[in-house]
Amino acid sequence: MNTNIFFEDILNGMNSDVVVLSPEFKYIYINKAAIKDSITREWLLGKNDFDFFKARNLDLSRAEQRLHHLELVKKTKAPVQFEEATNLSNGKKEIKLRNYHPIIDGDGNITMIIGYGFNISKIKETESELELAREKAETLVKSQEDFLAKISHDLRTPLNAIQGIVEMLSEFKFNEKEMALFKILKTNSDHLLDLVHELLTHARINNSINSLSLEEVKIKPFLEEITDTFRLETNSQSVNFNRQVLMEDSLFLSVDKLKLTQIINNLITNAIKFTQKGTVSFYAEYFPDTPRYGSLKIRIEDTGIGIPDEFIEQIFDPYSQIDSKINLKKGIGLGLSITKKLVDLHHGRIIISSKLGEGSVFSVYIPCKQIIPKPTILPDTESLNIKSSQILIVEDHPVNRFLLHNQLDDKKHTLVDAEDGESALNLCRKYQFDLILLDFNLPDISGEELLHHIKKLPNYNAIPVIAITANAFQEIRQKALEIGFSEFISKPYRKDELIQKIQQVLS
Questions:
Q1: Can you say how many angstroms the Cα of residue 416 is from the centroid of all Cα atoms in its chain?
Q2: Most exposed residue of 59, 67, 290, 390, measured as fewest CB within 10 angstroms of its CB?
Q3: For position 382, what pLDDT does the model report?
Q4: pLDDT more than 90, % of the chain
Q5: Is 372 exposed, middle or buried (0-12, 13-18, 19+ CB in 10 A)?
Q6: Domain 381-506 has what CATH class?
Q7: Sequence spans of domains, the chain
Q8: Which residue has the higher pLDDT, 393 or 189?
């Protein structure tokens, strides 16, 4: 067998361009994929790219590009790779990935250069399509995020007014009839807030713009605080609420407080909803797998109506309802769907067992990291009292300004209002404030931009600024703290929450 013919047949059978050039960049060999016409192949042997491009009246820039890379190979004695684009007669563009590989003898001299190329036009086209699709997806997600943020702001702003007025009314003394009306108002305003939160959370999880925000939490008192609300709530109903938190008081875990609270609240609320008479029990325990990692187990049991076997498979479907009459009174069928997605976000598990007419058990397992807390020095509680302060309230909504004046003691503090960013800056230039309460969404300027301008003013770099916003999403809170806000309060908020945040930044 003729070895030369054997290898030439192999090279000619390849779909990729293959050429061999001399150290002077002249063609020694050209396979059929590089040039199909045999006469042209024979003619080009001993010639270079400039000879070929000039004879064909082609753009010499491609010859110059090849020469540049060949000289680079000669200089470095190392392979090079580059992309070469050619405009075809049909108007399309062909892109080839070209490679030059030097063959070096024992004395370190280049004896020949092997060139080979692959048509990557389809790959580049696919890459362009994927990039375009990625940009469109990112734009869509950003649009959805902006839309949800606006909806959150527009819904929570009036809710803040309603909740604030309800909280103020709770300090009044009512007669029996007035108290009954007040309880109806409070119950339904709380329910409306829960529905808004449920809908917005569901939308954000579905749009994949949700992530965990982990922090060190002393877990036993945290779980007890969450469930204390349900003890009070069930006192006025025909439902007994039992609680057992079986773990050390000193145990610290790394958890997302907001999302863990929502998981527990959704499951207990659901249990109470379907237990018109009987018992709802909450159990919590931590199971260490290693010295640093383990699982937090939450179990909620009820003696309610139970779940039919055929319904368990679809219990976590959005808008799914066992008893539409009950759900129409108390929800829209999103609570368990949200709970499942929040558990999945933690890479956890949720298991259901139920018997119709006897009740249900929901068991949740959340992977957690155990934290060894650093020793902390607790501040003197007396120092947390808010001293008389000059406070600037930057808020465009008149009802929200009214609520802040009533929630803060304006006999003790000097409270000054600004309706927009320009007014706030003018007041800061004129007066020295001890604290600024700043609405994150002003009509004329963003909270971030206004904070930047305030911090540049003389004597204001260290003045605490608390962001107050109707956008309750975790990313907004994180962004606010990152850009320099001292604290973050989400509307609607309670008076004690506002006072506590102010205490923290002024102490």
A1: 36
A2: 290
A3: 42
A4: 38
A5: exposed
A6: alpha beta
A7: 3-119, 138-206, 215-371, 381-506
A8: 393
